[in-house]
């Protein structure tokens, strides 16, 4: 018997003009050290973060999981999946760019220096064993909760499998390299 060949997820790189930062529609859960860093950065550069609400990080909950996360504000996307919220991360600028990332670039630091790992790594994720490839199908999407919420990554332009795209580890080579660099140090 011949074993079926594993088919890897193929992706297109993020086009912020097309997706409007839809991956940021629900804000981001944070690790404690990420929250600390963000508070420090906002305090040091308040002029860059005038768009933030007073409580830009709060206690969040999703499907029984709780943690600290970034606030969101109402936002109407031109094209979004029906089950996605009409909101956007408080750190998003008008053009969809992350203000944590734009500040890092402005200060001549690596673009993800202040950005939470879950944000810059998307549509990849990580667990206690290391890097987790993006799901190829909706069935594989870890956020597929059935008809009421059929997935997350597989509904975003940069996380949706496309046979004409590049294999994920090539398309996301910068993310993979940064993850390995961060994981080693």
Helix/strand layout:
Layout: E1 10-11, H1 16-19, H2 32-44, E2 57-62, E3 65-70, E4 72-74, E5 87-89, H3 99-106, H4 117-121, E6 125-127, E7 130-132, E8 166-167, H5 168-171, H6 173-184
Describe the 3D structure:
A hairpin with a 2-residue loop joins strand 2 and strand 3. The radius of gyration is 17 Å and the shape is globular. By secondary structure, the chain is α+β, with helices and mostly antiparallel strands. Helices cover 25% and strands 15% of the residues. It is built from six helices and eight strands, in the order βααββββααβββαα. The strands form four sheets. A two-stranded antiparallel sheet has the order 1-8. It has a two-stranded antiparallel ribbon with strand order 2-3. A two-stranded antiparallel sheet has the order 4-5. It has one domain (10-184). The mean pLDDT is 92. The termini are far apart.
Number of helices: 6
Helical residue percent?
10-25%
Q: In total, how many domains does the architecture comprise?
A: 1
Q: Which structural class best describes the helix and strand composition?
A: alpha+beta
* Apparent shape: globular
Strand segment count: 8
Radius of gyration, in Å, reads 17 Å
Distance between the termini: 44 Å
Largest sheet: 2 strands, antiparallel
In short:
With 185 residues, this protein is of the alpha+beta class.
What labels describe this entry?
6 helices, 185 residues, alpha+beta
């Amino acid at each position: 018997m011949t074993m079926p060949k594993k088919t890897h997820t193929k992706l297109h790189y993020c086009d912020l003009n097309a997706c409007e930062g839809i991956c940021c529609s629900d804000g981001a859960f944070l690790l404690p050290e990420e929250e600390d860093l963000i508070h420090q950065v906002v305090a040091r550069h308040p002029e860059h973060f005038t768009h933030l609400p007073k409580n830009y990080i709060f206690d969040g909950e999703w499907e029984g999981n709780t943690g600290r996360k970034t606030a969101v504000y109402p936002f109407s996307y031109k094209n979004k999946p029906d089950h996605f919220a009409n909101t956007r991360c408080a750190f998003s600028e008008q053009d969809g760019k992350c203000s944590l990332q734009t500040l890092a670039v402005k200060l001549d630091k690596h673009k993800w220096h202040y950005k939470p790992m879950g944000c810059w790594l998307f549509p990849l994720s990580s667990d206690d064993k290391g890097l987790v490839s993006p799901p190829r199908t909706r069935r594989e999407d870890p956020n597929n909760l059935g008809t009421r919420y059929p997935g997350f990554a597989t509904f975003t332009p940069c996380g949706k499998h496309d046979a004409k795209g590049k294999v994920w580890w090539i398309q996301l080579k910068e993310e993979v390299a940064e993850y390995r660099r961060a994981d080693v140090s």
